Amino acid sequence: MSAPTNTVQEILDRSRSVYLNDPDAKVWSNTKLLPFLKSAYDDYQTELANNDLSTIDEVAPPLIITAGTTVYSPLPTDFVWPVKLEERLSGSDDLYTLMRQLRWTNNVRRTPDTRLDFYNYIGDAINFPEASVDVEVLLYYKKLYPLFPDQSGEPIVDKTTNVRGHAMAAISAKVAELIHRFVNQNTTLADLCEAQSKGEAFKVVNLYIKAAQAIPARPRPYRSYFRLGGYWGR
């Protein structure tokens, strides 16, 4: 079975069930968690940048949205959330025009046009009003992990499983750390979640370095992980 594209929902569900003791979302709904997710993602992006892994903005290949379709599908497997969308008539050489993000699109009342014009992002789905013709859409988005080195040649490393899993674990633990530290005021649980997040981020960096250098160990320590008492085993 291919890796699911519902990345954001998986991260939020993991934060609730593993770290926040709220598997049924009775306290921490998606709406409440999303601001923490964005902060956690920014911190994760900084950790990668400190280790020269900062390429986590991406542009998806142009996708044809057929007439009458109201959902962008499929989403990229490393998708976290959209930055912007642009559109043009399918088959044309016109410049792409920027689409406008709305809170809702299901209440946009209009006769189907030759443009989509609007989009929203709710529940890890990008929706828009239907168009009367096929439209080509360009998606700019935040991705879960950087580009994997093309020269790797290491068959054990599968970016859709190993790297994706560690990246999701790092961000979900970071979400819980922020909540425990700044909302629940529980530094013990916050520190445990922080250590877990740093450890998973370390594994992401390590996989990339090993693949790029084709050696079994990194030549320099991962800074944040070692400050937390981690060690590098040969």
Describe the structure in brief.
With 234 residues, the protein is α+β, with helices and mostly antiparallel strands.
**Compute the gyration radius: what is it?**
20 Å
Shape: globular
The helix/strand class is alpha+beta
Q: Which H/E pattern describes the elements? A: HHEEEEEEEEHHH
- How many domain modules? 2
The total of helices stands at 5
How widely separated are the two ends? 34 Å
> Stretches where pLDDT falls below 50 for ≥5 residues?
1-5, 152-157, 215-222, 225-234
Helical residue percent? 25-40%
Proportion in β-strands: 15-25%
Q: Give the total of beta strands.
A: 8
Mean pLDDT: 84
- Report the sheet with the most strands, covering strand number, pairing sense and barrel closure: 5 strands, antiparallel
Structure description:
The chain has helices at residues 7-19, 30-50, 159-182, 187-213, 223-227, and strands at residues 57-59, 63-65, 79-89, 97-98, 100-101, 118-122, 125-127, 135-143. The protein has 234 residues and is α+β, with helices and mostly antiparallel strands. The chain has two domains: 7-56 and 152-227, no CATH class; 57-143, no CATH class. Strands 1, 2, 3, 4 and 8 form a five-stranded antiparallel sheet that branches. A three-stranded mixed sheet has the order 5-6-7, with no helix packed on it. A hairpin with a 2-residue loop joins β6 (118-122) and β7 (125-127). The longest helix has 27 residues, at 187-213. It starts with 6 loop residues before the first helix and ends in a 7-residue tail after the last helix. The relative contact order is 0.17.
